[in-house]
Automatic annotation (TrEMBL):
Presence of keyword ATP-binding: no
PANTHER family: DUF484 DOMAIN-CONTAINING PROTEIN (PTHR38765:SF1)
Organism of provenance: Solimonas marina
Keywords: Coiled coil
Gene3D superfamilies referenced in this protein's UniProt entry, alphabetically: 3.30.450.40
Keyword Nucleus: no
Residue ranges that the Swiss-Prot or TrEMBL entry lists as coiled coil: 52-86
Protein name in UniProt: DUF484 family protein
InterPro entries xrefs: DUF484 (IPR007435), GAF-like_dom_sf (IPR029016)
Length: 232
């Protein structure tokens, strides 16, 4: 009889591990919709120790997700506004340089736009001495082959690649004697023809960085080069 009872005894219900339960719920996302009564009895422990219903937890998660989406949208909108402002400032720079009646006006207009629109405190235009012989325009210097600037920027004139980043005190004083520049960008003018360079300096040591985007710098150099060519 004991043997018969053993044979007739119902099999034990197999235990499910958590991984299998999670997999099942993922495969059947409508499970709780079909069993709404579970939403009232399932509990999720709060960090403070109190228990909340699954519905409350879902609402909390949805609110957090919504806030993240809103934050991301705000960042995207702010980036779009920044790009629009920068585009307007570049257009203003182009108009200023195009309308400048002289080289002196080109240098003054460049400095004004950089200060007021881009927060860049110091500028300098260097022109190869074969194209520019004057020494009387503030903000423009003639680059002599063996001059101080040529020696200080030896690597730049050898490679004619954009230099961006912190600048040492000696070079800063040479290029920007009227400002305490901590970082700078030195950009070639007409790289192939070696017209010269435009230098932008900032008192902020983080304003220019070696790996920053170069498009704005190249565009500025193109505008300055075109303005110089039209007046020399």
């Amino acid at each position: 009889m004991a043997e018969v009872n053993a044979q007739n005894k119902p099999a034990a219900t197999p235990k499910l591990n958590e991984r299998e339960i999670v997999a099942y719920l993922k495969a059947h996302p409508d499970f709780l919709s079909r069993h709404p009564d579970l939403l009232e009895v399932l509990e999720v422990k709060h960090r403070a120790g109190s228990a909340v219903s699954l519905i409350e937890k879902q609402v909390e998660l949805l609110r957090a997700r919504s806030q993240r989406v809103e934050d991301r949208m705000e960042r995207l909108l702010e980036a779009a506004r920044d790009n629009e402002r920068r585009q307007d400032h570049v257009h203003q720079l182009a108009r200023t340089l195009i309308r400048a009646p002289s080289l002196a006006s080109v240098a003054a207009g460049l400095g004004k736009c950089m200060r007021e629109d881009f927060g860049i405190e110091a500028t300098l235009i260097g022109i190869n001495s074969t194209n520019y012989k004057r020494h009387d325009i503030d903000g423009i210097v003639a680059i002599e082959p063996d001059g101080r600037i040529a020696r200080a920027l030896e690597d730049f004139f050898r490679t004619h690649l954009i230099e961006c980043g912190p600048i040492d005190a000696d070079r800063a004083a040479l290029l920007f004697p009227k400002a305490e520049v901590r970082s700078a960008a030195i950009v070639p003018l007409e790289k192939e023809k070696r017209l010269g360079f435009v230098a932008l300096g900032s008192t902020d040591p983080q304003r220019f960085a070696p790996r920053q985007g170069k498009m704005f710098l190249e565009l500025t150099a193109d505008l300055v080069a075109a303005a110089i060519r039209a007046r020399t």
